[in-house]
Write a structure and sequence with these properties.
Number of helices: 5
Distance between the termini: 17 Å
Strand content: 15-25%
Strand order of the largest sheet: 3-2-1-4-8-6-9-11
Oligomer: single chain
Radius of gyration: 16 Å
Helix content: 25-40%
Shape: globular
Length: 213
């Protein structure tokens, strides 16, 4: 599985820095990681490459990039998400069952101690920080997703969930029970393009809880 994410400039925010470094340390579970944005030395790893971009790339541009990848599943993931080893079993099962797209709800942990065993699933929290799909599916997304949806901003997850639900039905699964997606509690986030975001696209109304993998 290949991961696409976005790099924030660490000198701007110590909390961003700590959360992204922690996540990057866990991303050895991916065969390759592409960070969209300026090169950030603290995120440099053996499996990391950079794609020149602004700090908040559009999901459309990331989907376009994903659509050019050959013969692998591609995940678009928020940069502060810790991913653990069960994602390898998720990848294996998705490929065995030829599932075209999947996501996971997140478990929230306290970054003060970083103890993932204490992380909890907050049922009122419907945020999704990772979407996994085949390159063919990402090409479909790139053709249809509104330009104003960006990683690190609200509602892109609702749109993707609605798109996958509408187009794939039972073929869109969630792997929350594998307990491999962890989100750190944190303060307010910077969302400079929030004023551009609308919610008038049909796929915002098509989202529902996907069936378990």
């Amino acid at each position: 599985m290949i991961a696409l994410s976005s790099a924030r400039r660490h000198e701007k925010n110590a909390e961003y820095s700590a959360n992204q470094k922690r996540a990057a340390d866990s991303w050895s579970v991916f065969s390759q990681v592409f960070y969209f944005g300026e090169y950030e030395e603290e995120l440099s790893r053996n499996n990391v490459l950079n794609v020149k971009s602004d700090e908040w790339p559009t999901i459309k541009s990331m989907a376009r990039f994903a659509g050019h990848i050959q013969n692998d599943l591609v995940a678009i993931i928020n940069a502060d998400i810790v991913v653990t080893e069960p994602i390898v079993e998720v990848e294996k099962k998705l490929k065995e069952l030829t599932i075209p797209a999947a996501t996971s709800y997140r478990y929230e942990f306290d970054p003060a101690d970083g103890d993932l065993s204490k992380a909890v699933r907050i049922k009122e929290d419907r945020g999704m920080d990772i979407f996994v799909a085949t390159p063919e599916v990402w090409r479909m997304v790139e053709k249809r997703i509104p330009e104003y949806l960006r990683i690190g901003h609200q509602t892109f997850d609702s749109w993707l969930c609605g798109f996958f639900c509408a187009n794939f039905g039972f073929g869109f699964r969630q792997f929350t029970d594998y307990r491999c997606i962890f989100h750190p509690k944190h303060g307010g986030r910077e969302t400079p393009f929030s004023s551009e975001i609308r919610s008038d696209d049909e796929y915002f109304t098509r989202a529902h809880v996907p069936s378990p993998l």
